[in-house]
User: Fold this.
Amino acid sequence: MNHKYDTVRPVNWHDNQLHLLDQRKLPHEQVTIILEQVSDVTQAIKDMVVRGAPAIGITAAYGVVLAAKNAYAKSPTDWQTLITNDIQKLSQARPTAINLVWALKRMQSKFATNNADPIATLLQEAKQIHQEDIDANYKMGELGTELLPNNCRVLTHCNAGALATGGYGTALGVIRSGYAAGKITEIYADETRPWLQGSRLTAWELLQNKIPVTLLVEGAAASLMRNKMVDWIIVGSDRITANGDVANKIGTYALAVLARQHGVKFMVVAPTSTVDMNLTDGSQVEIEARATEEVLTIDGKNIAAIGAKAWNPSFDITPAEFIDFIVTEKGVVEPRSSGMDIIDNAV
Ligand code: MRU
Assistant:
């Protein structure tokens, strides 16, 4: 385990409260918000106080604990019915990442009526979901690093790091492990318009660990590849369908097509909690449409011509044919030949 590069935790449970590092404020301020009500947890996921597929799943799991605790205090016999609506709302906070629904199903599987202390059982399950995610990231870090050649230069997109997970990160976990192993010599990160996950979050967490990073605007990625400055693209995912199609931050698809054109390898890193075997292909994934203000303004200030409209899909689908490897904690898949068949993630 590589603790030197594992220092950031976006979600923490302390004294029966949920602590979230407010990612809207990074990198300039490190503010933690403390939540005790499930409705506030749902709002925090919607507002992207916490974001990234595994991190919102973990947050939702702790949200169920808060909901159950409050409902149990009101009615030890009827608490499950009382929180049905809360769970429904949590599940709809953001539509694309399947980890959210996956974590809620795991929590619901612990709702047995004969449970002597349901709150303790639920908290244990939420903590377990959290720890399993960190463990999966370490495993994927090892598996992904094995695929990389020496002296490798990588580009990542969005933030698939500690901030997007329980800790350590998926794509950034591989980048951390590959850098620690001396295989990665250069790390590029797309700034990731419009929310700037790359320049605000990925750069921040790498620099927390004193890992050098070079930012570029997404539009520069083609030139980076054409100028032979990068060997591998490594990204995370919000949902992977049974055929190996990958939903991830808007702009990922463009990178994958460019990578194929320029002979750059393309790796997706995601735990099996991101795999949705119920969907046959990416056309069935709901793509979140976010507010047009994210495109038209920065910090509340207009940056576009007044009257211009905006289109702001938050994710896109990269077809399996453009992906060389999907790294999960259960093994590496080459989706072009096998889809996601080796994966068993039934809850
Ligand atoms: O809108 P976001 O910031 O939640 O989008 C996050 C991503 O697209 C990440 O790449 C994905 O969730 C994988 S995180 C390990």
About this structure: The longest helix spans residues 118-147. The chain has two domains: 11-133, 142-346. Residues 51 and 164 are 6 Å apart (CA to CA). The two ends are 27 Å apart (CA to CA).
